[in-house]
Amino acid sequence: MSGFNDDLSRAMRELEAETGLTGRVGETVEVRPATDDEQREALERELGRDVTVCAECLRASCWHGEFMCERSRDANVRTLTVRQLRSLNLEHPDNYSRERVAEVHGSEPE
Length: 110
Description:
By secondary structure, the protein is mainly alpha-helical. It is built from 5 helices and 2 strands, in the order H-H-E-H-E-H-H. It has a two-stranded antiparallel ribbon with strand order 1-2. The chain is elongated and about 60 Å long.
């Protein structure tokens, strides 16, 4: 039983380190919702995030090799912000989401 308790303790410490939340099992933890300023800052960070796209069609999905344009074979790459990609509205935002980029490239962008 000691091995189980050690594993449980280790998992709790890792969870506390990842989330910043501490507490005992069964204890209620109060989480403060983000303020309007914090939400605005998070949105600005996301809209300013750089995304690599095909220089010819300006689509991340082409650069990822999913829906390749006719000129992709000889195309270079270009970096656009999420804000620019949303303005262009050439593809669904899921194609350049943090999760999708991490899935394609193996790590989440900074």
